[in-house]
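[Automated response] Your request has been received and processed.

Submitted sequence:
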Amino acid sequence: MFRLAEPQWLLLFLVLALLAWRIPRLAILSPLRTICLALGVFWLADPQLQISSSGTDLWVLMDRSDSAADALATSGPESEAILERARKSADRLFFVDFAESPVLREPGTAFEPSTGSSALRLAVGFALSQRDKLRQTKILALTDGYSTEDLSGLDSVLRSNDTPMDVRFFPPPAGDDYRVGEIEAPLRVAPGQSFLLQANVFGTKDGDVDFEVRCDDTKVGGGRVEVRGGRGSIRLSGRLEDGGSRRYEIRILPKADTRPGNNAAGHWVEVASSGTVLLITAYADDPLAEVLKSAGVAVETISDPGVLHPGYLTGPRVVIINNVPAHELPSEFLASLDFFVREQGGGLLMAGGRKSFGSGGYFESPIDALLPVSMELRQEHRKLAMAMALVMD
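Generated structure:
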């Protein structure tokens, strides 16, 4: 099969024809020049010749998630039989059951167990990775349309692989339906750090719906969400002390629901150390160090700024300068803070009073542009405070 990967370059032929008509002295229509220009345009268009064998490979993606399991159990065997009858001798059929992960299955064998996840994007990627590039490939997805993955950009992936995809949706059962959207929560938190979990609840009928929140199959919260205008919102806070990963699940408990398979959503949260904080302070017992340590943050305290060098920036995630003037920091260390922030992605926080910011001598220093405040002292601030007494005779 012959194709042009960049066909937009063929528009140059119109430009060349216009130049040949308007500027004859360019001699574009001379045989040698015409041939060279035509070859150049075709080279820019990136012609590709794909040698494919006869027949088509059809990858059938069958949704085995909870929300589609009942419908597919009824119509699945019939769909397989129809596809088998329509298959030509040179065609091949591949059946992929997918829920949380895709599994290649032989036709006529037992279904894979269903789960609450519906990873359609992962199943498409599995089919594309297993396909025979020398044969024409098509994808057919049998699903209820409730994918738990973000499908944005999937069309670009299919086009780049020259693979068309058809989707057949199962009709939803009649009746009211409530479902939980994706949980929005951080992927990683520090020990003892509070965080927010929130999710939207959608319903075909307004009403109050009970819900519960579980962490590693242990109930940690619950309540009732008001669904108004087809939508409600759940917001609650969480806090984890021990390290490791925890799976949160929000499950709604409606009184009547035709599709209970979409009533739960899960999210993993990792509890990990937030990294070392380098605290450069003018105080022997800085209370900020105790506050950070109580939050589970490792702190390295430097009360003698003269010992600092760029090597101190290889480990910490954040540098805090607390009431230390610029002249006490070694010039090499001060200059390396710019690279630490801009290239290493580290954080920089300055706190304090008279020995910080502009009054601490940081105006036009290497970190002047890193902080979102002006270091320049106004003229009236530079005046010395003085007391004057006038004695008149």
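Summary generated for your ticket: Residues 28 and 34 are 6 Å apart (CA to CA). Helices lie at 12-22, 31-44, 66-86, 120-130, 154-160, 287-294, 331-342, 379-382.
If you did not submit this request, please reply to this message.
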